[in-house]
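Teaching note: in complex prediction, the entire set of molecules is handled at once rather than each chain in isolation. The prompt given to students was simply: 'Predict the structure of this complex.' The entities are:
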Amino acid sequence: MKNVVIYDDFKEYEVRPPQLLKEYVGLLESEVGQFFPAKDNIVLKECPACGCREENRSFVRFKMFVYHECRECLTVYVSPRPSQQNLERFYAESRAAKFWEENMLAKTEEARAEHLFAKRAQWIEDICLGRQNKKLALLDVTPALRSKREQFKQLGVLTKFADRDIGDFCKGYEGETFEAVTAFDVIGSLSSPLSLITSAHKALGPGGMLFLSMTASTGFDIQVLWDRAARIFPPDHLNLFSPEGIEKCLNRQGFELIELSTPGQLDVDIVRNVIENEPDLKISPFLKYLLQKREEESRQELQEFLQRFKLSSYMRVVAQKRKDNESAI
Amino acid sequence: MIYKVGIIGYGKMGKLRHRIIATYPDLRVTAICDVEEHAEAPGKDICFFTDYRQLLKADLDIVFVCTPNSISPAIVVAALQGKKHVFCEKPPGRTRDDVQAMIRAEKSNPGLKLKFGFNHRYHEIIKETKSIIDSGVLGDILWMRGVYGKAGSQTFEKEWRNDPAISGGGILLDQGIHMVDLCRYFAGEFKDISAMITRSYWNIDVEDNAFVLMKTDSNKVAMLHSSATHWKHTFRLEIFLKEGYLILEGILSQTNTYGQGKESLKIARKRMDLQGKAFGNPKEEVIYFTQDTSWEMEIDEFINCIKADTAVRQGASWEAYETMDLVQRIYEADASWKPVSLKGEEI
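The expected output is the structure of the full assembly:
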């Protein structure tokens, strides 16, 4: 199995300017009660990754969503959680979703194009085209990527795009099989992450590839900041898989991992920003010293170390549908 | 169908192959041969021989030849004549004549498969590299620089590998042959060769260092250093292409000392700024591989070839010949290097 480390030099503020993020989270907080009434929310009795029913610790967001950490695989998940129907409504109608589209995405378009989208396209090219699979039939189910689909087309691959209804994205493509399914930063925001994986299994032919990216629960910034991790909020982050959790989950659904990497660039930068902005933050004095007082090079090397040992909070996975065409369950 | 397997030579490699074969439900090791009568008990229901000729009389479908270089060719030929499929460890004998003899036996038994253990080709890092090169995304190869080196040991001078009569050559033939094979695998056949073959440190009758410079017809150049005085175990191959570069470091091995548990492949594209000035340190991506499934994949391919009656792809006899021929031309390229005298079993 592959583990990829990528050296880059972009900063958190380039893709998530703090002021815009603050406004977005404020809007979310004001709207979650309206879109996700408690009576509609679904209680998960077990970890969505490994099925374990015990937890280590938890924290609460917006006074209503509880994040639980699975004792077995350290996946972090929200329960009770919004139904997929309410999520769809939220993303279609909320002011927060509109703000994200019109402000956050629009104003960071260039940085996202360079640091996120181009790399995703390169990633697919490296994995699929490198194997001389020149006529790749690819189904992309990443809503936020619509504006960047041109980059996929430049790959010279046959690309189709599923609509927002990612719970059952095979709708409309019945009878078709794909060689690759891509879902970037989608699985974390689904009421039922399993539905994405089973749909992908259905859509892929034997040996087909599933590309996923997501936030990892075991990443440096998440683990260090935990309940102060400002970029973790519902409903965008309902499932934060750990490397162990996502591997188990995919294996159970008939996939074999080809790559599991955490090529994140931002963990150290994120923690450092929080330390600088919140002087009273309770955090290891050593970490404070390291991140504030030592050379830039030490932070770069720490970030590389996190990637190397799969400890960054940005995780990407390539899983291949088993050729026997059967899931393990 | 259950294939009955015999293993000739039950040292480190024989035992390793046995361990892997034992994981296949349709393969059963039923006979083992080793000159050491007191070789470790290989398991019940396995006949043990000290003479390979006796083993070859047994009812077997496949024979694994894991013996020293001087006797492997004779065994391979006898096994093929005895109508067995044969897997033989590298190096394929000591000379190109050895390989030719084995190829003759193969040709006179067309239904049988013969494969040589150029195991490195099955490592993830090598497969990934080959896939990138073949995709053309980084353009054609310009040049390569490879180092494969080990440190020897206190018993190094007494090892059969350094007895020229048995081994036929030193570190280049024993370990460097993998790097030679990989250079061919990635860049094609080399025509022009310069070499310096030296015995720098160890008190042995074969070389402990080989420094090689080779060029293909299309001007791809490979520099290669094979060493037994490389005090830090090293596997490193740099491949520079028209649009970028690949740096392979570490190879997962039984000793786990050539990369400390990982193989890493560094990938970068060349970058110039708008004025055409080069970025001295382009952005790099590194892929780490931590699992070695090469042994299984190697045997997979061999068994599948037997089952489907298809040609051997990796480690085929013609490849073994080309690699051995190149090794021999490297020795011959250093006019001051005295070839070793060979003695061994008549083929």
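Point out the following to students. The two ends of chain B are 32 Å apart (CA to CA). Residues 3-119+297-315 of chain B form a domain with the Rossmann fold fold (CATH 3.40.50.720).
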